[in-house]
Amino acid sequence: MAWKLLQSREHLSNRWLTLRENDYELPGGKRLPSYWIVEKPSYVLVIGETRKGLVLVREWRPGSGKLHLSFPAGFIDDGETPEQAAVREFREETGFEASGARVLGAFDAQAAWLKATCHVVYVEAGDRPETTAVDAEIEMVMVMDWGEVLEKVRAGEVTEMHAVAGFYMARDLLDKS
Q1: Predicted confidence (pLDDT) per residue in 126-149, tens digit
Q2: Which of 53, 105, 129, 142 is the 20 to 30 A CA-CA neighbour of 18?
Q3: Distance from CA of residue 18 to its chain's centroid?
Q4: Within the chain, which residue ranges are assigned CATH 3.90.79.10?
């Protein structure tokens, strides 16, 4: 059953996010005032594979205040498809050129309070970077085989929700178990 939106107030909007305060009426008539929603642009998580393994990045995440081991990711620019964004983001964050981009699936990152769709895109990459990564957020680029990444996920060394979900989605759909 859908909640009925009674009023929506925009408190902040920029290229990174929109913050809304919404008032709802729940099924049965109960009112829920001041429910906060964060809207962010759709983004890609790139599962890039070389002949030697998967390409991961280690980067600082201000929200958690720590370094994270993850897959390259970034917003989809206006006019871009998820596949185009994946190729661009992969090159910017890792220096690897990508080809054969294909969307494996999409999910809502935190649907209760966050409006943002993550598109998981698989790409094939050469065995070494073609250029220097241009994204200053990235501390390190590394290549690991599927088994090593699985060990890192199970050990709690890969903790970003989209990275864990995207890895398992790719592992299942690409039959890498």
Answers
A1: 887 777 766 778 889 999 999 999
A2: 105
A3: 18
A4: 43-173
